[in-house]
Design goal:
By secondary structure, the protein is an alpha/beta fold. It has 19 helices and 14 strands. The chain folds into 3 domains: 3-199, NAD(P)-binding Rossmann-like Domain (Rossmann fold), CATH 3.40.50.720; 209-290, N-(1-d-carboxylethyl)-l-norvaline Dehydrogenase, domain 2 (Orthogonal Bundle), CATH 1.10.1040; 299-438, NAD(P)-binding Rossmann-like Domain (Rossmann fold). Helix content is 45%, strand content 14%. Bound molecules: nicotinamide-adenine-dinucleotide. Nicotinamide-adenine-dinucleotide binds at residues 7-13, 31-33, 36, 71, 84-87, 99, 102-103, 121-122, 152, 154, 156, 263-264.
């Protein structure tokens, strides 16, 4: 049993902290946000993530999981300290390391015994050396510490499952002592024969960026293939399915849609492109993936505009799905933001609905209409656009949808509606790459 602190109690810190406490370790999740910590202390969760509430409650009850804003004390009391703060995007595309640097300073100033400092935040390749340097400079008593990199691969929406059943755990360390300690932290996974891979710090940092950028690239690629399918009359669903049957390609991340969003792919691709440029090696593939993604988001707006006669002015548009993907309330970089913004600017009326992300979107758009069901959002609308593939939208009855809408017009950016039923019910519709658009 180890004493562990997570600094940063966001999606990654909270999920990882809860899961690691479930392994039997004593975990403190700390954060500078008083509001977040008070919310957690009161038994509520500041985020939605399937299975997380039960896991948090269980481990708080068992006395293994605590929440605090006293970062200094948590550092002093722990043997392993995870850095899990945000690394948002700077204007020039590079990763903003302000929070990471400030945490490194606090860690350095509060080292009172040997500790392993572990970065879980996604940080540019080479940041490990910077963090070590900052800690050393603040560590006046020269207390020994080791630094490791442990990039996180969980996906929002299935984060708990991903953490507990990972494909692999990567530990970048420069010596065996710290690697062995990290192995003990992840011991239950190790027992379950999950591969724990030991690399250098810099290689671990590279693995994270290379993986995320590759997935973003795959999405942009299939979106471009989908767009070409539309022009040439091919069916992207079949193309992607058969491509995915090739073991070298795999079916994952081959779903065409409105462009990737979320808190990782957009900023991580931008950071890798920026980093490689600084290293004198442009990553043209990644730059192309970024451009394609922007194009795809705008393409969805154009499709919607075409469906409603070339302007959103005075048109009521139901927007179904606000989260960047299903099973999360995270709307960061969601394609729905681009769509809402465009409709708003063109003086359209937005009737928005998401099963759980309405409140998150209100922080960006507080002047649009929000509803508690897709039926209410669609009632009296001139058209509807599906932006997120929530399961409940897959089950939408096309007949009921038609009866609610003023005019039967739909843009299905996730290809989840039954085209035959749309045709049978005289819908004017469009989608991504199915080559069967009935839009004028
Ligand atoms: P988040 O914004 O949800 O959480 C970050 C937390 O850090 C916030 O609660 C914030 O208050 C806190 N924080 C900021 N500065 C702090 C400080 N100085 N001291 C203490 N706490 C501080 O971010 P996230 O989505 O959890 O991402 C964290 C990191 O993990 C990022 O680098 C991200 O790229 C990476 N990551 C995220 C995911 C994901 O799916 N969200 C997956 C893998 C990796």
């Amino acid at each position: 049993m180890k004493k562990i602190t997570f600094i940063g109690t966001g999606y990654v810190g909270l999920v990882s902290g809860a899961c690691i406490s479930d392994f039997g370790h004593m975990v403190s999740c700390v954060d500078i946000s008083n509001e977040k910590i008070e919310c957690l202390k009161s038994g509520k969760l500041p985020i939605y993530e399937p299975g997380l509430e039960e896991l948090v409650k269980k481990n708080v009850k068992a006395g293994r999981l605590k929440f605090s804003t006293n970062i200094e004390k948590a550092i002093k009391d722990s043997e392993v300290i995870f850095i899990a703060v945000g690394t948002p995007q700077n204007e020039d595309g590079s990763a903003n390391l302000d929070a990471v640097k400030s945490v490194a300073e606090v860690i350095g100033a509060n080292l009172n015994s040997y500790k392993v400092i572990c970065t879980k935040s996604t940080v540019p390749i080479g940041t490990g050396s910077l963090i070590k340097e900052i800690i050393k400079n603040k560590n006046e008593k020269n207390v020994k510490f080791d630094y490791v990199s442990n990039p996180e691969f969980l996906r929002e929406g299935s984060a708990v499952k991903d953490f507990l059943w990972p494909d692999r755990v990567v530990i970048g360390s420069d010596n065996q002592k710290s690697y062995k300690i990290m192995e003990e932290v992840y011991n239950p996974l190790y027992i379950n024969n999950k591969p724990i891979i030991n690399t250098s710090v810099v290689t671990a940092e590279m693995i994270k960026y290379a993986s995320n950028a590759f997935l973003a690239l795959k999405i942009s690629y299939i979106n471009e293939v989908a767009n070409l399918c539309e022009t040439l009359g091919a069916d992207i669903q079949q193309v992607a399915q058969v491509m995915g049957q090739d073991g070298r390609i795999s079916p994952k991340f081959l779903h065409p849609g409105p462009g990737y969003g979320g808190s990782c792919f957009p900023k991580d691709t931008a950071a890798l492109a920026s980093l490689s440029k600084k290293a004198g090696l442009e990553m043209r593939t990644i730059e192309a993936a970024i451009r394609t993604n922007i194009f795809q988001k705008n393409r969805m707006v154009k499709k919607m505009k075409n469906l409603v006669g070339g302007t959103f002015k005075n048109k009521k548009i139901a927007v179904l799905g606000l989260a960047f993907k299903p099973n999360t309330n995270d709307i960061r970089e969601s394609s729905a933001i681009n769509m809402i913004d465009a409709i708003n600017k063109d003086c359209g009326v937005i009737k928005a609905y998401d099963p759980i992300a309405n409140d998150s979107m209100k922080l960006i758009f507080n002047d649009i209409l929000y509803y508690n069901s897709w039926q209410e959002a669609c009632d009296g609308a001139d058209a509807v656009v599906i932006m997120t593939e929530w399961n409940e939208f897959r089950a939408i009855s096309i007949k009921i949808l038609k009866s609610l809408l003023k005019t039967p017009v739909v843009l299905d950016t996730r290809n989840i509606l039954d085209i035959k039923k749309l045709i049978d019910n005289q819908f004017k519709f469009d989608n991504v790459g199915l080559g069967t658009s009935h839009a004028d």
